[in-house]
Amino acid sequence: MISLIQNKRKIFIVVAVVLFAAVALGVYSYFFRKPSQIVQNPPENQITHPPCLEDDKIADFPTNEYYSGEHFKYPKFPVVIYVRDKNTNKEKFKFQIDNVRENYYPIELHKCGVYVIRELNYDSKKTKQDPGYRSELWKYTYNGKGEFLLLLHEVTNQGEYKSYFATDFRIDPQEVYVALERGYPGANDYALVVRNLDTKIDAFVLLRKTLSEKYSINSGYFRLQEWTRDGNYFWASLSMTSVVEVFLRILRDIWEFDVLPAPEGTMGGTALNSELGYITYDDGAPWSGDADIDEMYRQQWKEEGKKVHFYLYNLLTKKQILLATIDDPTWNFKPKWISDTELEYELPTGEKKIYQINDDNLN
Q1: 36 within domain boundaries
Q2: 334 and 300 belong to one structural domain
Q3: Beta 221-227 vs 191-196: how paired, if at all?
Q4: 57: helix, coil or strand?
Q5: Residues 199 and 298 in one domain
Q6: CB 59 within 8 A of CB 84
Q7: Angle at 288 between CA 346 and CA 191, to 5 degrees
Q8: In the listed set 262, 296, 315, which residue is the last one of a domain according to the structure?
Q9: Looking at residue 299, what is its pLDDT?
Q10: CA distance to 188, 287, 301, per residue, from 295 (Å)
């Protein structure tokens, strides 16, 4: 009996020693092993992509092909941003941006930001929005985090609608400046504005009335065009309806600008080459937007034996190059720059032509 009790006591002691050793080993491993060996469960909201695009990544979004044209992409709503491998096109990350304004130019993609116009408290069933409605410019980094940048429109708590900037913008390639249209034609403070995104201060303001007084320009409103690829220049134009009167080339940081008259007949669909200063235009009938009027133009020009000439024109050198001569006064040549020196356009036969700018054209 005594022997049995002694054996049980020995077994208990052995088990206790083993359990103590196991616990001690576990405590030692937890506190003294290398940090790389500690396995931690990532939090649910862990960022899965850095704020900027890496060199081997690209970003895009699904587009509405019915509305998207040669000069801009009209997104599908709600807008989903996809980050993809540049070589394989494989999706690496995505995030959704809600309440994006459905207009012709609501979004731009850059290296470190997605810039969008958002509408908050918008009721599509109402023409007049309730107090609290806001139209704003936002920046989203590629980890999906959003940041408010600028108020464009609002309906105040008193029910008053106020417009500070038009719902159009252009971000420079270095993501320092945004070009905007302030106010409306006819207002004393109507202007083209370039604002610093970091300081929220206007770096450059060009009043419409200043251009009228100094350069005798009669056109009604600014149209934002584009920044050059290096961001050194910003291009804009002044138009009356669809006819462009002058182009403006603004030098970054110095804020000097060139006023460059457009040839007669230059319409809103002109293909601008901001790198070299070229535009396209023709001397056909003005754009009407009405099929019956267009047909009237065709018949009239055919009876009179008129021809339409399609040109390439350099705003800086004033050099003009005839590209095509046709009979249809309302034909859209669908000009598109496929590189800095290659212009693609289409003839009434359906044939697509490519004009190559050579060194002689650049002088």
Answers
A1: no
A2: yes
A3: unpaired
A4: strand
A5: no
A6: yes
A7: 95
A8: 262
A9: 84
A10: 41, 12, 10
Domain of residue 206 covers 191-262
Q: Specify whether 210 is located in the same domain as 311.
A: no
Question: Is the domain of 157 the same as that of 123?
Answer: yes
**Residue 66 three-state SS:** coil
Both structure tokens of 84: 């993809």
pLDDT at 340 over 70: yes
* CA proximity to 104, closest of 127, 71, 146, 79: 71
Give the chain's domain count.
Answer: 3
Nearest CA-CA partner of 191 in 178, 204, 175, 172? 204
Say if residue 81 is in the same domain as residue 145.
Answer: yes
What are 69's two structure tokens? 């044209």
Q: Assess whether 252 and 292 both reside in one domain.
A: no
Strand ranges in 89-145 using DSSP code E only, listed in sequence order: 91-97, 107-109, 114-120, 134-140
Q: Chain-centre distance of CA 150, in angstroms?
A: 15
Residue 279 included in any domain: yes
Q: Answer yes or no: is 198 within a domain.
A: yes
Answer whether residue 340 is part of any domain.
yes
Taking the CA atoms of residue 223, residue 229, residue 231 and residue 237 in that order, the dihedral angle to the nearest 10 degrees is -20
Residue with tokens 């069933």: 125
Sheet holding 342-346, edge to edge: 336-339, 342-346, 352-356
The structure tokens listed for 194 are 């370039």
Choose one of 240, 262, 284: the last residue of a domain.
Answer: 262
Q: Report, as an integer, the average pLDDT of 167-186.
A: 96
Q: Which residues are registered as beta bridge partners of 299?
A: none
Average pLDDT over residues 42-62: 79
> How many CA atoms lie less than 13 Å away from 211 in the CB half-sphere?
27
pTM given for the model:
0.83
Say how far apart CA 187 and CA 153 lie, in whole Å: 16
Contact 151, 164 (CB under 8 A): yes
Paired tokens of 318: 């004033």
Angstrom distance (rounded) from CA 277 to CA 262: 11
Better pLDDT: 24 or 299 = 299
Determine the Cα–Cα distance for residues 323 and 352; give it in Å rounded to an integer: 12
